Amino acid sequence: MGGYDRGLHRRRRRSRAGVPLLVAALVAAGLAAGGGYTLRRHPDLLASAGVERTVPAQVPGPRPTATAAPASPVPAAGRVPPRITYPLRGGGGFRTADTTGAVAGRSGELLRYRVAVEDGIRNVDVERFAREVAATLADPRGWTGDGRWRLQRVGRDGPADFTVLLTTPLTRGGLCGDPTDRYTSCRNGDRVVINVARWVYGVPHVADLDLYRQYLLNHEVGHRLGRGHERCPAAGGPAPVMVQQTLGLHGCAPNAWPLVGGEALVGPSGQYDDPIPAEDH
Fold first, then answer.
1. 118 near 93, Cβ under 8 Å?
2. Domain spans, the chain
3. Which of 21, 148, 212, 243 has the fewest CB atoms below 10 angstroms from its CB?
4. Of all helices (H) and strands (E), which one includes residue 56?
5. Per the record, which residues fall in region Disordered (predicted)?
6. What is the CATH number of domain 47-55+78-227?
7. Which pLDDT band holds residue 12 (cuts at 50, 70, 90)?
């Protein structure tokens, strides 16, 4: 879903309160400690939403003894990626990436953005996540590709026009102004809120998780750039990035990029009345 659109979806049954399970394999030695970022909190990201921000980040305790399992092939690098874990609601503070990146785009208005990850989301290196965000937003198929916009990632203390936040499902509800929705992501004011449940699980109708993550970032940032929702223009063709692909494709094929074949891909203005799943995944 992109943006926050009050009242356009049918009311849903209450979600169960279970904590989501995890998507990838256990972290091998050294990965979780190798990010090289400074743990900092951004002081004002949650204040206006009334979400607690004084709870310290949780320190992982001893791991329980694992039961025996069949051997799995070991990747060539000798390690497996860490699994991302998260509670339904995080600690309320954020780790903010410190690195400033290059300006992406050859011309157009310059907007600067920060990247932060909520406390309680584990096995996400905030600097690595920030690089993934920057790589998507700097791609020539993205918003900086047609000369209308330039985007630059800044650190915690630099002036910023918006912040990309990776949040837990219930924190997402507070920041987006819709506590009943723990499934979608949103843009609300200068916050681009990425629900970690979608970052981890994607959606059933988009098989390529990397493509879905690129779509998710481009869609929500598109709202910050003033774009509204669109509909599928032609069955069988790629979906414009401003279609709410999280909820349905309506005959279009998944697409992560504002530009397709070097040209802007747009659809008719509007959105579908797709139901929002009641649970986070």
1. yes
2. 47-55+78-227
3. 21
4. none
5. 57-82
6. 3.40.390
7. very low
What is the maximum alpha-carbon separation in the chain? 57
* Terminal C-alpha separation, the chain: 14
Distance between CA atoms of residues 175 and 45, nearest Å: 9
Nearest to 204 by CA among 262, 159, 249: 249
pLDDT, tens digit, 9 for 90 and up, residues 27-44 = 333 333 333 333 344 444
Mean pLDDT of 109-138: 98
pLDDT tens track for 199-252: 999 999 999 999 999 999 999 999 999 999 999 999 999 999 999 999 999 999
Average pLDDT of 146-169? 96
Q: Are 152 and 101 in contact (CB under 8 A)?
A: yes
> What is the value of pTM for the model shown?
0.75
The residues near 214 (Cβ < 8 Å, ≥ 6 apart) are: 136, 139, 256, 257
